Amino acid sequence: MYQITVNNQPARAVSFTTEGQPMLNGNVFAWDIARINDRTLHILYQNRSYTAELLELNRTDKTVRLNIGGKIYDIQVKDRFDLLLETMGMSSVATTKINNLKAPMPGLIAGISVQPGDVLTVGDTVLVLVAMKMENNLKSPGEGTVKAIRVASGDRVEKGQVLVEFV
Predict the structure, then answer these.
(1) N or C: which end of the chain has fewer CB within 10 A?
(2) Three-state secondary structure call for residue 84
(3) pTM, two decimal places
C-alpha cells in the first residue's frame, strides 16, 4: 500500500488488485494510460482525455510534479516503509541537521572545500580524504552551517575523528 498526497490535500490510500489494477481509497480506479515519451503520458479517465507532463521527479524525496491540462500537481508518495517509520516517530531522521563530520577511515586530508560560516546542504563537498592511495570526496550528510574546521590540509586523521563541526 502507498499513501499519496496531492497539493497538500488529505492523503489517499493507493493499492493494487491482484490483476495490477490501481485502487484509490479501496475503489478500483478505471483509467487508460499510454506513454507518449519519457516525460509525457496520455490518460483517458471517465471518457475524458488528459495529457500529463512530468516536470520534476525526485526519487530520494519520493515527490513528483506534474502538469495535467495546464494545472500543476505536486505529489508526495509514501510506501509502507515510510509509513512504518512515521508511526515509529522516525520520519524526520533524513532531514535532521548535522552536528559534525567524522572521518570514515584513517587517511590524509588532501584539501578542504569549506570555511567557517559556509552553509551546506546534503551532498555538498566538504573535504578530500586520501586513503589507500584513493581520493575520497567527503560530502555533507545533512544541512548545516560550518562552525569550525578541526583539521588542515596535510593532516593525518584516524577513523571517527571529528573533521568539521556544524552549528
Answers:
(1) N
(2) helix
(3) 0.53
